[in-house]
Amino acid sequence: MxxxxxxxxxxxxxxxxxxxxxxxLHWALDAQNVSTQGGCLRRAxxxxxxxxxxxxxxxxxxxxxxxxxxxxxxDCLVARQDSLFRYDAATxxxxxxxxxxxxxxxxxxxxxxxKIGSTETVLVGNGLESILKWPGGSGSVSPFGSAQQQxxxxxxxxxxYFNRLFAAGDGxxxxxxxxxxxxxxxRTIEDWSxxxxxxxxxxxxxxxxxxxxxxxxxxxxxxxLLIFKKDRLYRLLGDRPSNFRIVPVEAALHQPVHTACVxxxxxxxxxxxxxxxxxxxxxxxRPPHGADLLPLLGTVDFSxxxxxxxxxxxxxxxxxxPGSRHNDLVIEYDVLRDCFxxxxxxxxxxxxxxxxxxxxxxxxxxxxxxxxxxxxxxxxIEAYWLAPWLTGASLLTDxxxxxxxxxxxGGPVTVSLWGEDGAQGGTGVLLGEGVPREFLLRAGGRRxxxxxxxxxxxxxxxxxxxxxxxxxxxxxx
Length: 477
Description:
By secondary structure, this protein is mostly beta strands. Helices cover 1% and strands 51% of the residues. The protein has two domains: 3-41 and 384-474, Jelly Rolls (Sandwich), CATH 2.60.120; 47-370, YVTN repeat-like/Quinoprotein amine dehydrogenase (Methylamine Dehydrogenase, Chain H, 7 Propeller), CATH 2.130.10. Strands 1, 2, 3, 4, 32, 33, 34, 35, 36 and 37 form a ten-stranded antiparallel sheet that branches. The longest helix has 4 residues, at 294-297.
């Protein structure tokens, strides 16, 4: 046996929990803060603060809503568990719009932009008091609906489906689903009462399921409304009360946290400790690589999970470190390439995707643009790619690393290889497009492991792959 050349190119994503030695090398056993778009390995972008930090106790921050305006500015709401704030561009400060009677300890806030008549309005539900409505800009918040219209319920899930407002999360009636009248004439979505003249324009409500388990989330697709309960998933079909049908989805699934659900096209994706699933309009499926992070997902905390979609990428923020105050791990899923990547080194309260941009509410209280800039709000982006074990032709042979050639630019980066006799590596700056940079390596053993990482947050891009030269010899017993 003699020298072998091993290539790492067309980088994909992170894949865990498979048998040792069976993974192709373009999948990582672990990686963080890298991008593999186009098959190239790059350090990921960071985030750039857009608005000044929030005031007060950052630990009480809960949710973010961003409303882009035609002039390029944004209207922004932040829900803290005790208050609702908006950013006032005129004064450059955060204004307390509404103070809640109780501190809300959970993430039970829901924002929805709707039209009431011809006026665009943002609805805010939190399950403590009646829905609030905000017209944007310097406008004040006001109560939504009225007792006479039967729409003063304290709900925290709101969705639009066939032009009606649907709501759930009423603490007094946890399994109840409400809907508004069909808008038209003098009717608006603020009226949930029955209409004596026509059932088809009436508001109303129904108890979902045959038990009192609470509704835990509402999500509207183009032709149905999905209703999550603790025990199972239901869907509402039909476009008017006379033909509404609520039927259970006959599929086994682990119920998600509603804030870990995100729509993409006409599918709803949701991340759980059993992997990534999606509802395709008929039943629940798992993508081919939906279970690739099972070892990791079984250890993280979903209690404060948040999610968003931007382009063809889904983002889920969860808590990896039990001692962290906020979510400290962002899991990216590329829908088209069916692969996961991981982001660490930042604190995430909420994510919000809108018009091709991803907004972040950080643990520092900043509202920022994600995937922009070269730091995480001033902190360096520590990136690495850890390949699976290299077994070569056989586990019965000894391997001795000789050198690595990396084609790309930026850095400095460190290329490491280690085996049974320890780790060896080298650090250097990549030389540019088409010019290999060589790193001498001396690790040895039956198996070898390759790692590439940046230094002090340095930016790099590997566009020509990595070639490893290994001397493989038969073992002498």
